[in-house]
Design a protein that fits this description.
single chain; 223 residues; alpha/beta; seven-stranded mixed beta sheet; 8 helices; 43% helix; globular
C-alpha cells in the first residue's frame, strides 16, 4: 500500500502542489545537515497554505520549525503586513531553517525563536505577540497537551489550531501503548474533546509520509 499511496501523492502533487527551487533546496539542506525527514509533504504544505489563505490569517504561530519547509508554505500565504512566529528547540535545526527561509524570500516576515517552546511561549505572551489567527503544532508529541494550553492562551474566537501527526500509524487507538508520543496525542485529543472553547475534527492522511493525520480545531469561545 505504501508504494501506491506515494504514487497517488506524486500524481496530485505534480498537478496541485508543484515544488520549486526554494522548497527543493530546503529539503536538500535538511538532508545534507542530517536533520530527521519529518517535514510535511508537498500536498500537506499546500493544505497549510490554503488554510492561511482561507482564514485570511495575518498572524501565524508554528510550534516546531525543523528546516522551515512548512514555514515557507505558510509564510508565502501571508498578506503583506503578515507575520509568522516559529519556534525551534534545536539551534542547529534553526540555523538550517534561517538559511532556507532567506533563500525562499520569506525571512523578513518570519520571526524564528530558538529554545524549548515551553520556555518561549510565555515570552510571546509577555510581549503581547498574540492573538494568533492560526497555530500549527508540529513538535514533540509528549508536550502536545501543554502546547494546546498555550495555543488557547494565544488565540481568540475565530482562530484555528492544527495538530500534526495525530494518527501515528493507527497507534492512537491503543490506550495501552506506552509510547509517550502516542500518549501525548491521546491526551491532546481528549483535551480538545473536553474543551468547550473548541469544535474540532481529525482527518487521516495516507501518502508519501505513511499513515497519519491532522487534528483541526476552531476556537469558538473565550476563556
Amino acid at each position: 500500500m505504501q508504494k501506491q499511496w506515494s504514487a497517488v501523492d506524486s500524481y496530485f502533487a505534480e498537478r496541485l502542489a508543484r515544488s520549486d527551487a526554494a522548497l527543493d533546496a530546503a529539503l536538500a539542506a535538511n538532508a545534507a545537515a542530517g536533520l530527521p525527514p519529518h517535514d510535511v509533504s508537498p500536498l500537506q504544505g499546500r493544505f497549510l497554505e490554503l488554510i492561511v489563505r482561507m482564514t485570511q490569517a495575518s498572524r501565524v504561530l508554528e510550534i516546531g520549525t525543523l528546516c522551515g519547509y512548512s514555514t515557507i508554505w505558510m509564510a508565502r500565504a501571508l498578506p503583506p503586513e503578515g507575520r509568522l512566529v516559529t519556534l525551534e528547540a534545536d539551534a542547529r535545526h534553526a540555523e538550517v531553517a534561517r538559511a532556507n527561509l532567506d533563500r525562499a524570500g520569506v525571512g523578513e516576515c518570519v520571526d524564528l525563536h530558538v529554545g524549548p517552546a515551553l520556555e518561549t511561549l510565555p515570552r510571546l505572551e509577555a510581549e503581547q505577540l498574540g492573538p494568533f489567527d492560526l497555530v500549527f503544532i508540529d513538535a514533540d508529541k509528549p508536550s502536545n497537551p501543554d502546547y494546546l494550553a498555550w495555543a488557547l492562551r494565544l488565540t481568540r474566537p475565530g482562530s484555528v489550531i492544527i495538530g500534526d501527526n495525530v494518527v501515528r500509524d493507527g497507534a492512537v487507538v491503543d490506550a495501552m501503548n506506552t509510547d509517550p508520543r502516542v500518549q501525548g496525542v491521546r491526551r491532546f485529543t481528549d483535551l480538545i474533546a473536553d474543551e468547550p472553547r473548541l469544535i474540532a475534527t481529525a482527518l487521516q492522511t495516507v501518502g508519501s509520509k505513511g499513515w497519519d493525520g491532522f487534528a483541526i480545531a476552531l476556537v469558538v469561545g473565550a476563556e
